[in-house]
Backbone:
């Protein structure tokens, strides 16, 4: 195996065995605590531009399945793992195909300790032991451009008709809606209110996606107008965008929530549910939109995990109810959203 190196903005260098391509693009170095689901995680567009560290020591031990992909290609800037089990070379082939660098055989515990001490750590995987810093990283708006569709595409033939604004959606969100009999049209994140009207939706979903939601400020007005016009459901990045569009605020977390073991409390019932999460930004509790109330909170740190409009059929959650990988405790939110949509009867609210 070829020696490889993870160079961090902190000045630290981790040496391991190089997988896939050599590094071309620096990214924020983040970690996920999930014990399974490495393929779903790798192909989640929300990880675009990030160097992803797997805390679970072994990756690749149960192979790769075409049906487990959450998008058509991985979007990460690199992957890091303690051990790579790849006897057939399928994982390395996947990384090479998409020119993604990987590094195995390093002390991921030590790396995670370093990441946890800093608000943002950037890094790049290289076959060179010495590199100059700083390196160029992609901005958040550019990342969304990279992972969003460029034209509308419709799936299914059922009812209701749900239009999904694509900021980097996971296939499992689409599958969850199709499973409930919906017709789903996935559209570019730049879609305007007038373009949305031409599609005649019954409801709108604002998907997950990568980076800082504030980078999409030019689109906040359209997001608000669209969500005021039809029943709306925001997931992860979409949750943050809805909050910002209505006058709320977001902030970067120290390390973010990435994994499939995050407990959230439902405020009305008091029930605690385990969730799958992948984000580095949260809606600020002290700067909630005035017309919204909190529906879920994170048990570990008290951050806002869900909000709902007081009068309009608009709701959003920070976690992933489609939960691939992860527990399906909050899968019922899709049922609630469909019931809300059917009750509205495709009515325009604005």
Residues:
């Amino acid at each position: 195996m070829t020696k490889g190196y993870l160079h961090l903005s902190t000045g630290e260098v981790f040496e391991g065995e190089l997988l896939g391509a050599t590094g071309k693009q620096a990214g924020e170095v983040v970690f996920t605590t999930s014990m399974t689901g490495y393929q779903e995680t790798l192909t989640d567009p929300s990880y675009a531009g990030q160097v992803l560290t797997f805390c679970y020591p072994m990756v690749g031990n149960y192979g790769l399945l075409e049906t487990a992909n959450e998008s058509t290609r991985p979007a990460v800037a690199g992957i890091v793992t303690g051990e790579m089990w790849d006897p057939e070379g399928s994982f390395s082939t996947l990384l090479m195909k998409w020119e993604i660098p990987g590094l195995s055989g390093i002390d991921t515990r030590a790396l995670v300790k370093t990441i946890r001490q800093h608000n943002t750590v950037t890094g790049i995987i290289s076959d060179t032991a010495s590199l100059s810093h700083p390196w160029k990283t992609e901005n958040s708006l550019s990342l969304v451009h990279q992972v969003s569709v460029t034209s509308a595409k419709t799936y299914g033939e059922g009812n209701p008709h749900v239009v999904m604004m694509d900021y980097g959606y996971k296939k499992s969100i689409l599958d969850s809606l199709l499973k409930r009999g919906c017709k789903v049209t996935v559209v570019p994140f730049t879609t305007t209110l007038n373009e949305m009207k031409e599609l005649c939706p019954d409801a709108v979903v604002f998907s997950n996606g990568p980076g800082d939601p504030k980078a999409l400020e030019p689109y906040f007005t359209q997001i608000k107008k669209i969500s005021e016009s039809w029943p709306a459901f925001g997931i992860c990045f979409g949750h943050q965008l809805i909050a910002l569009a209505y006058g709320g605020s977001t902030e970067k977390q120290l390390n973010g929530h990435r994994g499939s073991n995050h407990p959230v409390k439902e405020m009305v019932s008091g029930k605690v549910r385990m969730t799958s999460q992948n984000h580095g930004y949260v809606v600020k509790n002290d700067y909630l939109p005035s017309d919204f109330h909190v529906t879920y909170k994170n048990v570990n740190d008290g951050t806002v995990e869900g909000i709902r409009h007081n009068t309009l059929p608009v709701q959003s959650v920070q976690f992933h109810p489609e939960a691939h990988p992860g527990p399906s405790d909050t899968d019922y939110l899709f049922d609630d959203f469909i019931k809300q949509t059917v009750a509205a009867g495709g009515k325009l609210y604005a």
The radius of gyration is 20 Å. The longest helix spans residues 332-344.
